[in-house]
Write a structure and sequence with these properties.
heterotrimer, A alpha/beta, B alpha+beta, C mainly alpha, A: alpha/beta, Glutaredoxin, two-stranded antiparallel ribbon, B: Four Helix Bundle (Hemerythrin (Met), subunit A), 4 domains, six-stranded antiparallel beta sheet, 10 strands
Chain lengths: 192, 647, 152
Amino acid sequence: MNSQAVGAAPPAAESRLWRRGKWAIPLSVVPLLVLLAYGFRTDPRAIPSPLVGRPAAPFSVTLFDGGRLSLLDLRGKVVVLNFWASWCYPACYEEAPVLERGWRAYKERGVVVLGVDIQDTEEAARKFLKQFALSFPNGPDPTGKISVDYGVYGVPETFFIDKTGRIRKKHVGAVTEEVFTREVERLLRDGG
Amino acid sequence: MIPEIGYAMTAVALGLALYGSVAAAVGTKTGRPALIQSSQHAALGTFVLIAAAMLLLVYAFLTFDFSVRYVATNTNRGTPFYYRITALWGALEGSIILWSWMLSIYTLLVILRYRSRQAEFYPWVLSVMLGILAFFLLVMTVPAPPFQRLTPIPPDGRGLNPLLEDTGMITHPVALYLGFTGFTVPFAFAMAALITGKIGDEWITTTRRWTIVAWYFLSLGLLIGGWWSYHVLGWGGYWAWDPVENAAFMPWLTATAFLHSVMIQERRRILKLWNLTLIILTFGLTIFGTFLTRSGILSSVHSFTQGSIGAFFLGFIALVLLGAFGLVAARGHRLKAQGELDSILSRESAFLLNNLFLVAAAFTVFFGTVFPLLSEAVRGVKVSVGAPFFNLVNIPIFLALIFLMGVGPLIAWRRASPENLRRNFLYPVAMGVAAAALFRLLGVANTLALTCFGLVVFVASTIILDFYRATRSKLRNGERLLPAMGNLLTRQNRRYGGFVVHLGILVIALGVLGSNAWSVQSETTLNRGEAFEIAGYRVRFDGLAASEESNHFKVTGTFSVANNGHPLAVMYPAKKFYPQEQTPIAYVDYLMGLREDLYLVLGDFARDGSQATIKVQVNRMVTLIWLGGLILTLGSALAILPDRKRA
Amino acid sequence: MKQAALLPILLLPFLAWAAPPPGSVNEDTVRQIAAQLRCVVCQNLSVADSPSEMANQMRGIIRERLKAGETPEQVIVYFVDKYGEWILLSPRPQGFNLLVWVLPFAGIAVGLVAITLMARRWSRRAAAQPVAETIDPATRERIRREMAELEP
């Protein structure tokens, strides 16, 4: 097989194009590496919401305790709108006591905590409410209309709505005591 | 004990691999064969250690040793026996062990086959392969150790991901990894060729069979993945252009391009630089694919856990690509094309176009997969790139490739005369057009479907025509029919193996066409005793049954199915509730047929069994995809048969 | 807005592959719209394909909005308004996103040019040697076949 002789042709005839451009081949890899390294700093699952800063979409729920509650009724108050489900373990289970405590602490000060139960059964939802002795208003969203209206893509998600009915913050994941207090205090201080 | 012993084994294996890689390189550079010998021993040592570590891990699985964190995260006391063994590659750490083990086997095979033959290349091949093995062992020792101790020892494990409790998942990673790791061999040979400066055609002819075997296993892995998606995930599809699917598809595309262009280099002595680039890209893409599914930078079905493993892989990709392409830049001037091209209408052209389209498809998939990341980096806006994009851009490319499948094998080298074109393509083109016209008459209105079908018939006709002519010429020489056909297949096994593989691809193309164009589906809620009709089938809901399995709770629906009046079967789609999962897993039941599959997924149901929602799909021609895979297997086997020269 | 309308039109030939079930044209439109939207709780599946509850509800909302008289473009705009561009399973061919649509075809065009240039360079080398057509095609075919049999 004379492939070796054939392959190793005399290097004298190196073309100009090759000489000038050959290092472009390995160098072209570098921008890709930079992009992939950038990928480490992003979270592919965190989707920024386009709704922050915009008026909250109106809706009304039939509460588990009976009666209906509409978001428009709550104009003038700070609203903590929480989307949850009984099968959302462990996050919803962690934040339920936080929300309940927050509700009890702030309900006299013009803050309403409103829970919307999505993609759930009534039986499981009531069990959840009973387990955490939740006293703030809760209602189901049977068709998913409210959750889509708020761009919800998972549970739990919590929206902090100010007194003029604007969404000021969206929190994805379990709400902690710190987040609750900080956001509510900020919106209470805010005139309007 | 087990975590410590296992960890020690991997650490020692890492040391051996590093030593072996260096020893082989130094040994050949300084002309000391003893070093090369000891490098071989080191390779053997790594194989033994990795195999032992694997057995140790399997033992830990079988004995419920939850002191090993990997065991505790991936099984529990209810996991069935065989899944406890295959849980070995059920998650990140185990998959790296599997990969390392296969690499060590391939290294041993290379040693056994080439140590006395390719004296120039062999030590460098060994060095490169051991170096790559060392990287994976490093990953096993630092960011993703399978032998991490878990304290305190939990009473029960978390359990295997329920989607993995399926036969597809037992075989899919094995096939896929055999493919991925298989490409290390031609890559190592290419590196050896570049390092020694002997970049003739030798490295290609030597690695031809390795490439086909690796390509075959990659194809098999992709098909099994599609099969798993189809019958486990419950959406009735087999390919979603998910990043991890793309991660395996990209190297398949470049590997297919490589398979074809080496044929040109062998015969016409051109495209040498291009072939080196292709194998580097292919190998690089296999590592990139592994990186994608483990680094967490893209969300996908397969996302393993994150951690620092991404950084390791990115570093390795940088090393491989910069190093390999740097070598190409440094040595590339020695490559000179020796062949000529007389006309655009030639086999060389067809192969060049084949390569162009395959690489274009790979680029499309690649760019589409990383584009969300790019968009976020440049604009700060997250976008999605999914099936509609990939289908829209790739379908024309694949149709062009199917057309080339028909043209390439028959068109003449260098320049195709009008005579040659007429002789080889008149009938097939006529058949293709006639077939499309026939289908138009039969009522198929979709232009895409007609084009695809016409092309498939065109290509099939070229294959049949060639085989017919070759057989006829043998019969004229006095041979009998069956021996003539048999001899053709075995004597020209490369050519006819390739034809059979092409036939397999055609059958798969038909399956893809049929399932996309003519499948129907519907979702409905039925009361007990109520029936539902779709596409000639009558599905009646008979009831629900609950059962307690070893590691999950299962609700099974009973559905009686009749086709055009005749009772067909009773089907049992179910929903499985695993304690460690938030949502239930669908268990699909389906009736597989050549022309169509009946596919049932159980949705919501009433607790008392009085009502159930089911999704019914009639998926047309999906079975052709799996059938095409079988044909592909036969073709690949034929292609790698040892050569038999005429007596 | 014009580009958003372009998208469903671009995809229409491919979405038309799904044979319409007997009865409502409306269901077909629902599926077509759902096929363009990303299921938010799944990995890379469309709302049309996804078996999840969320996708089910989203399909219900699509159906409802169509019944209320909205056009498919308006329904899609509604979802983009709530979720951002990310919900489109295929990026709108406008602005920066044009890159992903154009580059593959640009690449093919560049490749074709490169092949033609290379072919010309190689064929210049062969300009001095014309191919002699003195053997009849059938014999040439036989020679080719027998040569192929001798190949390694």
